[in-house]
Design a protein that fits this description.
This protein is α+β, with helices and mostly antiparallel strands. The chain has one domain: 3-Layer(aba) Sandwich (Aminopeptidase). The strands form 2 sheets. It has a 5-stranded mixed β-sheet with strand order 1-2-3-4-5, sandwiched between helices. Helix 1 crosses helix 2. The longest helix has 18 residues. The mean pLDDT is about 90.
């Protein structure tokens, strides 16, 4: 496996992976969502316009098997997304991609990247806990949007919230 920065000729593969990532996030919330390549293209264009570093994991056959996107703001690095094709998970791909984010954070004078994580995403939560990450300080609150059904409960400390 090789980790490298994305290049212009990687766009089609990246659009596919971004689409799969967004689909997997929707599934976490029990939502049925269709593949939306146009939305993925728009998302990729935003990353490129803002010059976010995009790291790719290549298999031994040069197939892209995962990606991560980092947002850099001064000395703070945020991991915007981390995705590994399901059949390559639990083989060190995500860890190798995440190590690039940690290295990038150190290059910019920080000691760690920051993460926003969906509370339903047990996989990334366990992944980050194993790497020594904990909840820092924030939860995001908003009212349900019209037509949005809150189907779950989420406990934060002693507070219980409806969660979609």
């Amino acid at each position: 496996m090789k980790i490298r920065l994305a290049q212009a000729n990687d766009e089609a593969a990246l659009i596919q992976l971004i689409t799969e990532f967004r689909l997997s996030l929707a599934t976490l919330r029990g939502k049925v969502q269709k593949l939306d390549f146009a939305a993925a293209r728009k998302e990729l264009d935003e990353y490129l316009e803002k010059e976010f570093p995009i790291y790719l994991a290549d298999s031994e056959t040069a197939t892209i098997i995962g990606y991560s996107v980092c947002r850099v703001e001064g000395d703070v690095v945020w991991v915007e997304s981390l995705y590994v094709v399901p059949k390559y998970r639990r083989k060190g791909v995500g860890s190798s991609l995440y190590e690039e984010a940690e290295r990038l954070a150190q290059e910019h004078g920080g000691n760690t990247p920051y993460n926003w994580v969906d509370p339903n995403n047990d996989t990334i939560i366990r992944f980050l806990q194993k790497r020594g990450y904990s909840v820092l300080n924030l939860i995001e609150l908003r009212r349900a949007q019209p037509g949005e059904e809150m189907t779950q409960k989420l406990c934060v400390g002693t507070h219980e919230f409806d969660f979609g």
